[in-house]
Design goal:
It contains 6 helices and no strands. With about 200 residues, it is mainly α. The N terminus is likely disordered.
Length: about 200
Amino acid sequence: MTIAPIAPRLRRLALPALGLLLAAALMYTYLRTQDYDSTGYFENVALLRQIKQLDARWELDAMKSHIGLNQNYDPLVDPLREMGVLPQHLGALAAAPPPGDAGRLRAAVAAYERALADKAALVEAFKSHNAVLRNSLTFLPTAVDDIERLAGPRADAAAAANRVLLATLTYNQNPSDEELREAGDELAGLARAMRGLCDRL
């Protein structure tokens, strides 16, 4: 009984072994893909896009409120409500991350929540300050009319009040250090004119 040469026998065994290795690699890749998909990769990408869209809408509505296009602050509330729910989804994602990503993902979710809280506080401060500014700008022409009535023949006080009104409205439309200084100078001039007017009453 002759024994077949070793090299041809190894070659015959190598092909099935190689096929088995390839099948194992494909099975491993398939299982990894299934695990990867089970983490909701595409859902998470959509969630992050939603966050970016809501954030952009939030900033746009803040700008519209600043220039007076929004009549109330409701548009600034809606994105915050929606964005406040999103950290729950992100938290669920961080609770079951792909291997090796747990720490980074939890840190990213925590950073998002801090940034959202900071931005919400800034938006609240903006709403308060902008409401005061809008009310003041609405009242300012009435105050100038009152000064004109009070000044009577004292045209310098009425003129100073009108210059303050003009400088304030100009600064509101085009905020700059130069416009701010001019408004301050005009306000100081009005204060002097009003002191002189009060001395004569």
